[in-house]
Design goal:
It is built from 10 helices and 16 strands. By secondary structure, the protein is an alpha/beta fold. A hairpin with a 3-residue loop joins β3 and β4.
Length: 327
């Protein structure tokens, strides 16, 4: 699962100086590089125009001149820009989904409370993607943009009564937008997980800090247990993010998390029920756990102290302990 990147051509404006033009392009390309580095996007920018056609100072400075500057100033960014694929027209990314492609051709998009057409932002909305802009004015220095969609019914021959709706589009023009945009994108995917197959399909995209043990039977999760487990997985993934960010020795859990009792782990038959194979650490006992729904169900995991990751070891009914027998 990858988010599409859509270039917002409305952000192309005349730059007052070459330095300003160079800064705008550097910020935008750095933002794209950061998003792709997080492995949530393909290395493709869908655009109405080719980047080489961008001219920020007429007949003096555009993308080609920026490349020549960047080759000297930042070789890594220069090489990334050369490898970035540009696909046009931008709406081509919608063709694989017939219903969405049809909605696009029956829609008009305006910036909120204006008559300014914003086709690229509409494509970003329909593709569930991310709009990318040059940070050319205050209007584009935000991590989301509100647009209005006017959707025309196929039976309305005179196009008199479109359905009007307001939408928030994920948007980035500077590197400091990246974290919020990614968080929002992952949360949207999270809300789509309504069965165990989607959980497996979306795992890497939504829970990049979590691993699965080889024995984990996620495909058996359903209904209340699935919903509760997904919520806990989201919390654990965010816990790992904060753990890495703060570089602390121990993770700070937002839920009541506790280790299994020593008495239980000292009994081999009980300890072995908490033994699974981690993709990064081999066979380990999963000691940390928390409650999930329905009542009496548990989620077990293992902390990877070195990489500050978590491996999910077991999700299901309460395992027997030294005090509690299996039900």
């Amino acid at each position: 699962m990858r988010a599409t990147l859509i270039f917002n051509d409305l952000s192309i404006q005349a730059a007052p100086t070459r330095n300003q033009a160079q800064y705008w392009l550097s910020e935008m390309i750095t933002t794209i590089a950061d998003l792709i580095d997080e492995e949530i996007c393909e290395k493709t920018l869908h655009s109405k125009i080719n980047l080489y056609e961008i001219d920020l100072i007429e007949n003096d400075y555009g993308f080609q001149e920026w490349l020549e500057d960047t080759r000297i100033l930042n070789r890594e960014l220069y090489e990334f820009a050369l490898q970035l694929s540009i696909q046009s027209p931008a709406y081509a990314c919608l063709k694989s989904q017939q219903d969405i492609n049809d909605e696009y051709f029956r829609s008009e998009f305006n910036l909120k409370c204006t008559d300014t057409k914003c086709e690229a932002l509409g494509i970003a909305l329909l593709s569930d993607g991310i709009a990318i802009s040059l940070p050319s004015c205050e209007e584009w220095l935000v991590d989301s943009v509100y647009i209005e969609q006017f959707l025309y019914d196929e039976t309305d021959e005179n196009l008199d009564f479109p359905t009007r709706s307001l939408h928030q589009v994920r948007h980035a023009s500077q590197a400091n937008h990246v974290d919020n945009v990614i968080l929002h994108w992952r949360h949207e995917l999270l809300n789509q997980i309504n069965n165990s197959q989607k959980l497996l399909n979306y795992w890497i995209s939504v829970f990049p800090n979590l691993d699965q043990s080889k024995e984990n039977s996620l495909h058996e999760l359903q209904s209340e247990t699935l919903a509760s487990a997904v919520n806990r997985l989201w919390q654990l993934n965010n816990t790992c993010f904060e753990w890495k960010l703060k570089n602390e020795n121990e993770p700070a859990y937002p839920m009541k998390a506790r280790p299994e009792s020593t008495a239980t782990m000292q009994q081999k038959n009980l300890a072995d029920m908490r033994l699974s194979t981690c993709p990064r650490q081999g066979q380990k006992h999963f000691v940390m756990h928390c409650n999930i729904q329905p009542k009496g169900f548990r989620l077990y995991w293992l902390e990877n102290q070195q990489q500050k990751r978590i491996t999910i070891g077991y999700i299901g009914p309460h395992l027997p302990t030294a005090k509690i027998k299996a039900k």
